[in-house]
Specification:
2 domains, mainly alpha, DUF1013 domain-containing protein, 49% helix, 249 residues, TrcR
Length: 249
């Protein structure tokens, strides 16, 4: 459902100038009902000036009256050319000031664990520039010694679905190029859900490498034990008692 332009200011106006329910305003403006209640209580959007949707050709007065008379009626947004594409803006992703200091750490994580991602993909995921990504790839970033790789999803810089989509796109590109990938690389190029559901590849511990074909059946065990049985006398090479008597004479 399309949202009105200046949705929060529109919600402020509807709260102040109509008797619509919080749910109706929330559905029309694309907010949670509790957020609209916060606007009414003055806890949210303090200082925001209301934006009249009727005067700005986004809503008919008759539509508001219908909704006021019927709590189940949903407001319908008028077609407004200026509102088209409001949610999809071009340009780099906006990163809040509080999270911008963590952006290099997220870039380092992506470069380390998903080197197949193109610089353009990383720039789109975390809202950065290609020169910054390149400096981290080449470890020439001014703060590279103090940086720690942190998952951008955990930092809130991107969604898990967005990261999975970028990884799958990189996997498709690898497949088209015909590059041979190891199991670990292939596991990185799938979504998180797919990776967790994959069975682990059986691997032989390095401590017993070279003994893959060794086997000892039950029939062979007694025979081998008999062959390796050590005679104590022959082991210590003790002389016979008769030899000792001759030496004494």
């Amino acid at each position: 459902m399309d949202k009105p332009i200046m949705a929060k200011a529109t919600a402020v106006w509807l709260v102040d100038n109509t008797t619509l329910s919080f749910k109706q305003i929330a559905e029309f403006c694309g907010f949670h009902e509790l957020e609209v209640q916060g606007i009414a209580d003055g806890d949210v959007a303090a200082g925001v000036k209301g934006f009249d949707p009727v005067a700005n050709n986004q809503l008919d007065q008759s539509e508001i009256e219908k909704a006021e008379n019927n709590p189940l009626h949903k407001l319908r947004l008028k077609h407004y050319a200026a509102a088209t594409g409001e949610e999809k803006r071009r340009g780099p992703r906006y990163t809040p000031l509080s999270k911008r200091q963590d952006r290099p750490n997220s870039i380092l994580w992506l470069v380390k664990f998903h080197p197949e991602l193109a610089d353009s993909q990383i720039a789109k995921l975390v809202g950065t520039t290609k020169p910054t990504i390149q400096s981290i790839r080449e470890r020439t970033h001014w703060n590279i010694q103090n940086m720690q790789p942190i998952d951008p999803v955990a930092l809130g810089l991107c969604k898990q679905s967005e990261l999975d989509a970028a990884v799958q796109k990189a996997a498709a590109r690898k497949a088209r190029e015909g590059e041979v990938m190891s199991d670990d690389e292939r596991r990185k190029l799938v979504s998180t859900e797919q990776s967790l559901s994959m069975e682990a590849e059986p691997k032989i511990p390095s401590a017993i490498a070279g003994l893959e074909t060794f086997s000892l059946s039950d029939d062979e065990a007694p025979k081998r034990a008999e062959e390796e049985k050590i005679d104590a006398d022959s082991f210590f090479n003790l002389p016979n008692s008769s030899d000792d008597d001759e030496d004494d004479n």
